[in-house]
Specification:
This protein is an all-alpha fold. 77% of the residues lie in helices and 0% in strands. The chain is built from 13 helices and no strands. Helix 1 packs parallel to helix 8, helix 1 packs antiparallel against helix 10 and helix 3 runs antiparallel to helix 4. The two termini are 20 Å apart.
Length: 235
């Protein structure tokens, strides 16, 4: 358990550094919505989702109702339902419910990426290690954005979000180099995402909805054409 926790912390360091930079711009949105640094810190500590938080802060700034906030956040974060379903298959059958709930609390894009690629059954302490670094950085970055965000030029704040794309590349490139099928479907995903953002009708959908549709369709095609054998899952 200790070994897996430390390994998770090591893998969580680059994610945490990226979160610290990205959540800074989120803190600016929190301040514009009237939140204090402490409120922004707690919001990010309990809700680790950039799109969902930004949507929530936008609703707060518009003085909308709680129901509107719940619906907006649910739609923005719906992709995590798919990630959770996929991640649940990585647990050993005898994994206690408590561990499953704690891991499910912090299913972010990046932590999901490093967790789902771990060989064999998922040891929850690996995810706890990554969470122990990434989650506080996300919360601290938001608080710093509330405090000092408006002191920086808008271009500088926007540039901080580029770090997130670097983390995504670090997650997908290693498995793509090892497996041609993964590499091909990663490329297909890029092209399909670009097309969906520009085609009529589909582009009018929210980014989260497009992501869900593409994830289901592309993963279903990949699973049908190139199923993973049980022996490979246990390797």
């Amino acid at each position: 358990m200790k070994k897996e926790f430390i390994k998770g912390m090591q893998h969580g360091i680059p994610i945490g550094l990226g979160y610290l930079a990205v959540s800074f711009s989120l803190g600016v949105a929190a301040k514009n919505a009237g939140l204090t640094a402490f409120q922004g810190f707690m919001a990010s500590l309990l809700n680790n989702a950039s799109a969902g938080e930004y949507a929530g802060f936008t609703v707060i700034a518009a003085n909308a109702s709680y129901l509107e906030m719940v619906l907006m956040t649910l739609i923005a974060n719906a992709r995590y339902l798919l990630m959770s379903c996929s991640l649940s298959q990585k647990f050993a059958p005898d994994t206690p419910l408590g561990h499953r709930l704690l891991v499910g609390f912090d299913v972010t894009d990046e932590i999901f990426g490093i967790t789902i690629t771990r060989p064999g059954a998922l040891n929850p302490y690996y995810t706890y290690g990554a969470m122990a670094i990434a989650t506080p950085c996300w919360a601290v970055g938001t608080a710093l954005g509330v405090i000092a965000g408006n002191m920086l030029p808008l271009r500088a704040v926007s540039a901080l979000s580029v770090a997130l794309f670097g983390m995504f590349l670090a997650v997908i490139i290693p498995p793509a180099r090892k497996n041609r099928v993964v590499a091909v479907f990663v490329l297909i995903s890029f092209l399909a995402s670009f097309a969906a953002a520009n085609l009529p009708y589909i582009s009018s959908l929210s980014g989260g909805t497009r992501t869900i549709i593409l994830t289901v369709v592309i993963s279903a095609i990949a699973a049908a054409l190139f199923p993973v054998k049980e022996e490979e899952k246990k390797a």
